[in-house]
């Protein structure tokens, strides 16, 4: 029986919609949204999620690159809108997980920037998880195997004690390669069933 659930954040618990940003992009007269390709390129994203730069510095770097092609004003407006976007949190899903884990621990394992603690506080999730393993705080991001080694060591548990849930195939494959029973998240019903089967 497992006693530790390692669960991803974005795409599992927190969900972002592109609709609002796409509409804003169109209002600026742009035919396509250039922000995501820029911001989530490895060159910009990796330093932000491994602690090399802060969330604010990440935004500054993206703004600078966008300004070279679209001008300072458009770049400023795009990044300002991006920074202010709000995501939806699946509170019901979290409650159901908690109901299955009266004896175990729920650990957030996420590739996130320095803004994560602020984000958790703003949506009422501060203290909701027994532990938070943030890639930007430990200096390494999933799917690197060392991410999982650091997480397990910090939690004081073994691979056999855990299950891992993520919506990114490479992250799931990495965890499985270490012997952690893992699920590629596609819907809450399947994920809850997985938790019940492994943790009861």
Please summarize what this structure is.
This protein is of the alpha/beta class and 200 residues long. The protein is elongated. The termini are close together.
Characteristic terms for this protein:
200 residues; alpha/beta; Rossmann fold; 2 domains; five-stranded parallel beta sheet; two-stranded antiparallel ribbon; 11 helices; 52% helix; 14% strand; HAD_sf; hydrolase; HAD-like_sf; HAD-IA family hydrolase
Structural class: alpha/beta
Name the beta content range: 5-15%
User: Approximately how much helix is present in the residues?
Assistant: 40-55%
- How many structural domains does the protein architecture include? 2
- What is the helix/strand order? EEHHHHHEHEHEHHEHEH
Unreliable spans are: none
Q: What is the end-to-end distance?
A: 6 Å
Query: Can you identify the CATH class of the largest domain?
Result: Alpha Beta
Tally of contiguous helical segments: 11
Quickly give the CATH architecture of the largest domain: 3-Layer(aba) Sandwich
Report the strand count.
Answer: 7
pLDDT averaged residue by residue: 95
Q: Give the biggest sheet.
A: 5 strands, parallel
Global Rg: 18 Å
Strand order of the largest sheet: 5-4-1-6-7
């Amino acid at each position: 029986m497992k006693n530790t659930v390692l669960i991803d954040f974005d795409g599992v618990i927190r969900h972002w919609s592109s609709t609002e940003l796409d509409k804003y992009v169109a209002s600026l007269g742009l035919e396509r949204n250039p922000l995501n390709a820029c911001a989530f390129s490895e060159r910009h994203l990796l330093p932000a999620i491994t602690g090399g730069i802060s969330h604010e510095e990440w935004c500054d770097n993206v703004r600078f690159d966008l300004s070279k092609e679209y001008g300072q004003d458009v770049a400023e407006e795009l990044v300002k809108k991006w920074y202010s976007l709000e995501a939806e949190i699946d509170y019901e899903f979290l409650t159901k997980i908690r109901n299955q884990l009266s004896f175990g621990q729920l650990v957030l394992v996420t590739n996130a920037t320095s803004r994560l603690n602020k984000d958790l506080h703003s949506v009422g999730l501060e203290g909701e998880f027994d532990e938070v393993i943030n890639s930007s705080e430990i200096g390494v991001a999933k799917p690197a195997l060392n991410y999982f080694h650091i997480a397990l060591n910090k939690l004081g548990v073994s691979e056999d004690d855990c299950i891992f849930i993520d919506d990114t195939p490479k992250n799931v494959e990495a965890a499985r390669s270490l012997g952690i029973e893992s699920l590629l998240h596609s819907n809450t019903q399947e994920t809850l069933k997985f938790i019940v089967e492994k943790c009861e």
